[in-house]
TrEMBL record:
The keyword Nuclease does not apply. GO terms for molecular function: DNA binding. This is DNA-binding protein. InterPro entries: YjbR (IPR007351), YjbR-like_sf (IPR038056), YjbR/MT2646/Rv2570-like (IPR058532). PANTHER family: CYTOPLASMIC PROTEIN, CYTOPLASMIC PROTEIN-RELATED. Keywords: DNA-binding. It comes from the Bacteria.
Length: 127
């Protein structure tokens, strides 16, 4: 089961990833960003722990249909974001893959110069 420390470590392991607490009225809401854009949003002290992740709209629908732990993004664009409960029912690898997919979607939207600075593996597939 992925706990708060593992979630933080995994999100920060990506090139250029940063952790920020940008909401003064909600100081416990943690964002993980790349290139100034959010790819993961969580409150690391919540029980159960959840994380909101960017997702391709078609995949988002499939994940929601297959896993009750995956729901439309809480207070986010429900077409492009899922909120995922990390209470233990989802395989850890699936959660890690969803985080990586979210990171990749955000990096893919960055200007090419930023993608190159991040040494993003997906850049070689874009040519």
């Amino acid at each position: 089961m992925i706990d708060a420390n593992a979630l933080r470590d995994h999100c920060l392991a990506f090139n250029g990833a940063t952790e920020e607490f940008p909401f003064p009225r909600h100081q416990d809401v943690c964002t993980f960003k790349v290139g100034g854009k959010i790819f993961a949003l969580t409150t690391l002290t919540d029980t159960p722990l959840t994380v909101s992740l960017k997702c391709d709209p078609e995949l988002a629908e499939r994940l929601r249909a297959a896993h009750p732990e995956v729901v439309p993004g809480y207070h986010l664009n429900k077409r492009h974001w899922n909120t995922v409960s990390l209470a233990g029912a989802l395989p850890d690898q699936l959660v890690r893959d969803m985080i990586e997919d979210s990171y990749d979607l955000v990096v893919a939207s960055l200007p090419r110069a930023q993608r190159l600075l991040l040494d993003w593996p997906g850049e070689s597939r874009r040519r």
